[in-house]
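URGENT: need a sanity check before tomorrow's submission.

F., can you look over the Pyridoxal phosphate-dependent aminotransferase record below? I want to be sure the sequence and structure line up before it goes out.
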Amino acid sequence: MSFLSQTLSRVKPSPTIAMSNRAAELKAQGRDIIALSAGEPDFDTPDHIRAAAVAAIEAGHTRYTQVDGISELKQAICDKFARDNGLAYAPAQVSVGSGGKQVLYNALMATLNPGDEVVIPAPYWVSYPDMVLLAGGQPVIVEARLENDFKITAEQLDSAITRNTKWFLFNSPSNPTGAGYSHSELKTLTDVLLRHPHVHVLTDDMYEHLAYDGFEFCTPAQVEAALYDRTLTVNGVSKAYCMTGWRIGYAAGPEPLIAAMRKVQSQSTSNPCSISQWAAVAALNGPHDFIDRHNLAFLRRRNLVVDTLNAIPGITCPRPEGAFYVYPSIAGLIGKRTPDGILIESDEIFATALLDATGVAVVFGAAFGLSPCFRISYATSDDVLSEACKRIGDFCSELM
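Structure tokens as predicted:
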């Protein structure tokens, strides 16, 4: 009898973390490595947020808190949803966890039974399908193709829904593509969901504030009020507020679901870090002007990477609406060989050969459910991105 759980055999380690670890190993060996694999802003946490954490320590806010968040943070989250999204929630409808990943996991663990299906557009964040599998459900993947700007259509969504569908798991702007659904595009999807009242919506809005070129973010319950009681809206402070290490995510939705998620959290991690919660209060309630400044830098970096990659024969790189990722296609490079004879049969082989030859770490598209592509995080300096793109161009020019 195996010592390890059979459930664990259904999932795989995170490819993004694996690539970041591999890059770190090579760097420790003295290699000149440029890691573009991690989705983490390179800006420091703003001063007023750090000051709030110090104040929390000085005030003695270092003990256990309520399982799923202090009342002050829950109220700040309610105020945020009202201010930014026109959504009215009470504190009892809010759950706070140790990062958005835990909040998503809690929701799936609290709701999925064997045979339940979760519709997930691909490319997807690498953890979505595996969290569904760990919770006992079955991911149903719908491919959003390059020619449709990596967005699924209403017809695709409708075709994927069955009587076993419990959730539609949605992410805009997207990790890994940066694609954002406009109000009209999202309305076509919510119209489909209205025809299937047994399907609930799990929306990951983590990149809400990272939007460019006039793109206006919207979220499903905002677009279609009739979905309010069927939607769990997930967000957090990690990306826009540069608080990845603080580990605070949150969600708002139907009170019975929030209570069920609280039960899961009470028997796993219990409360998120008390100090991080007080810092998150300051983040949500405090000034937001730094977000616009950061977005100007992200916009410049996005344009640099997109323009440079599109000048490389064999690579096609869409210009995304948000987040800080690009997801270029390498369809034009499949079948070529490196100077030392490696056949580029897949995007995984491409990413591995690129790292070994040039020291540039990217994540291969198969990890996100759609090939042949790779993901670059441009949340780093212009100089680093310029050098990385140069190395990618040189690598591709040597393929035969």
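My own read: The mean pLDDT is 96. The first helix runs from residue 15 to 28. If you see anything odd, call me.
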